[in-house]
Amino acid sequence: KNEVEQSPQNLTAQEGEFITINCSYSVGISALHWLQQHPGGGIVSLFMLSSGKKKHGRLIATINIQEKHSSLHITASHPRDSAVYICAVKKGGSEKLVFGKGMKLTVNP
Amino acid sequence: DTGVSQDPRHKITKRGQNVTFRCDPISEHNRLYWYRQTLGQGPEFLTYFQNEAQLEKSRLLSDRFSAERPKGSFSTLEIQRTEQGDSAMYLCASSLGTLTEQYFGPGTRLTVT
């Protein structure tokens, strides 16, 4: 079993919908990262969380350390949000990031 | 553009050849990371530098792989005697500290024929 699991693996939504992407992990962590990857490979860091909740524009990320679970929410989705969203955790005592497989989001106009 | 650059962006090589990739991090970042990503998968950690010291290496980094960061600025990743299984996107990232965001370069796509 992977140490970081994301669900769903693929999601198609209509423009304007509220979207939730989930990430569960099975190891002790010092931080959790949400990353966005567009076709062609470029990865952009969206959030780094160690507790609670962060908001940036239409994106909200939450983490529950006790339940080892994080969610990324996108409000008022737009076709430009179409990308792969990757969850990665920094294991305690290590600089190593362990990545989920990513979730491919397609937002149709 | 995140400020992290990688060169080359694409490399096609024949099996058995050596290849070297370069990463230039954001100048004030003391931490530099190398990752590998194959199609349809999330990235996998390869190695990490703090300044010029290589502090962590993955078991994925076989004897054919070597990475350096000689003056604590740019880094190179060399793959000797390339194999078809080495075909992947090689990503570099940098950060300012241990619990800060990582900034990723555009990657070098390696194809071994």
Briefly, what is this?
By secondary structure, chain A is mostly beta strands. Chain A is built from no helices and 11 strands.
Q: Could you explain the architecture of this structure?
A:
The complex is a heterodimer of chains A (109) and B (113). In chain A, a hairpin with a 5-residue loop joins strand 9 and strand 10. Chain A is globular. By secondary structure, chain A is mainly beta. Chain A has no helices and eleven strands. Helices cover 0% and strands 50% of the residues of chain B. Chain B contains no helices and eleven strands. In chain B, strands 2, 4, 5, 6, 9, 10 and 11 form a seven-stranded mixed sheet that branches. In chain B, a hairpin with a 2-residue loop joins strand 5 and strand 6. The radius of gyration of chain B is 13 Å and the shape is globular. Classes of the chains: A mainly beta (109), B mainly beta (113). At the A-B interface, strand 4, strand 5, strand 9 and strand 10 of A face strand 4, strand 5, strand 9 and strand 10 of B.
